[in-house]
Amino acid sequence: MSRPEDTLPPDLYYNDPVSRQYTTSSRIQKIQAQMTHRALQILNLPPSQSSHILDVGSGSGLSGAILTQRGHTWVGMDISASMLAIALQRGTGALPRKRRKLAQDMEMDVEDGIDDKQSNDEDAGDEEVEDEGEEDEIGDDAPCEGDLLLADIGQALPFRPGTFDAAISISAVQWLCQAESSDENDAPTRRLKRFFEALYVCLKRGGKAVMQFYPRNQKERDMVGTAARRAGFGAGFLVDAEGTKAEKVYLVCSVGGEDVTATIEAMEDVEIEGGAVGAGRGREQKGKFGKGEYKKGSKEWIMRKKERMERKGMVVKKNSKYTGRKRKVAF
Amino acid sequence: MKILTLNFLTCARKTCKSSPAAFPLHPRDAELEIVETEFNALFIQNILPRVEWDALKGLCTELGLTNVPPEAPEPKELFDTSIKSAGIDEKEKEPTQLTRDLHNLLLETTIQSGKLVCGNCGHEYAIKEGIANFLLPSHMV
């Protein structure tokens, strides 16, 4: 299983033929649609509201078409000009069935060549038989009405604060874990830091971001999670179909506002990992020290001890504002 | 690119982020086009408080659009309240002509090609076929 991230930078990897193949493959379409629906489910946007959504790594607008279907207005960003060109053709309805046919033919011609550098979506795909006739709801004809920007998410997001109600990203963040040059400014940690800081700014308070990505290993996953938390997000991972070939990792981030744990816990078949989603941790701590067991040496502990000694009739110093305070460091 | 999106875009350079001149970006040689989209009054209601009205007015003057109200509309102006008393459901409120005009201006008026210029650093972002290019050379990140 080769990863496309290992072969080329995203702007070069997604060239015209690869982009077209990616977009027209019904298998990828299906997986992308599933993941987008799942991400929207996790976002849990109020049903009556029509939101302004950022699609990070929008590609050819496969996920965007679903956002449009749901009545949201979105802005997509992608680094690959070829992908955006296809999104344009889809958007105006100018990508005819013919082209799709052509892409299929091409697929046959170069099957051997392209098969071994298939994208992650293929690799991680469910083992289902392709069925060309069905599942065409987000076919080439689906409108893609969002605004598109050609931009590198590892550089900056050019939006003013509070622009978006929510953000989604399908199979894009793993591209940030790659150093494209030896320049230290291009190191993955720096790119992730810039991305999450900019994302934090452009989401409104109470906004959420759900990012599906393919981490190479645990270390890479932690790196992304840490970067999100450092930028100020409440962040946690949600893993679907864990341990299988079709494993999907979602990074769920929230900006202030309510806690996302409750929403996630309410859903079925979900395991919460790296539970740094705010309140979860707090509860744990309370359980440990909650039943009258204060930390030894803390002010509460001293006060309780003094009270008990007083009740026993011992001589105890009067309480003052200095009780239980640390002494000043002499030097 | 929609006028609405333009109202949210700033210069991508880090050094410009703190400068008030980096927002809004000024369109140059812009070719406008009307792209019809589905009318959604709820979205207008949701996004309106976040639109910078002064910036929008400035942008429209630069683009030669004149039909912009001088003041940001109040939320209550978006829906026709007169029929509400007749017991119509909250969701089925009738949007006013003003809301339709806003939809036309913010979501249907798009820039097809041209440039966006940062008021602070003067960097030009090209727009081609409605897609703005925000890629920066590495020394400017």
TrEMBL record, chain A:
Pfam families: Methyltransf_11, WBS_methylT. Residues 110-142 are annotated as: Disordered. The keyword S-adenosyl-L-methionine applies. InterPro entries: Bud23-like, Bud23_C, Methyltransf_11, SAM-dependent_MTases_sf. One of its GO terms (cellular component) is nucleolus. Residues 282-328 form the 18S rRNA (guanine(1575)-N(7))-methyltransferase Bud23 C-terminal domain. Keywords: Cytoplasm, Methyltransferase, Nucleus, S-adenosyl-L-methionine, Transferase. It comes from the Eukaryota. The keyword Transcription does not apply. One of its GO terms (biological process) is rRNA (guanine-N7)-methylation. GO terms for molecular function: rRNA (guanine) methyltransferase activity. It is found in: Cytoplasm; Nucleus. Its main location: cytoplasm. Residues 54-95 form the Methyltransferase type domain. Residues 121-142 have a biased composition (Acidic residues). Belongs to the class I-like SAM-binding methyltransferase superfamily. BUD23/WBSCR22 family. This is S-adenosyl-L-methionine-dependent methyltransferase. The lineage of its organism: Eukaryota, Fungi, Dikarya, Ascomycota, Pezizomycotina.
Automatic annotation (TrEMBL), chain B:
It holds the Pfam family Trm112p. One of its GO terms (biological process) is rRNA (guanine-N7)-methylation. InterPro entries: Trm112, Trm112-like. Gene3D superfamilies: 2.20.25.10. It comes from the Eukaryota. GO terms for molecular function: protein heterodimerization activity. Belongs to the TRM112 family. This is Trm112p-domain-containing protein. The lineage of its organism: Eukaryota, Fungi, Dikarya, Ascomycota, Pezizomycotina.
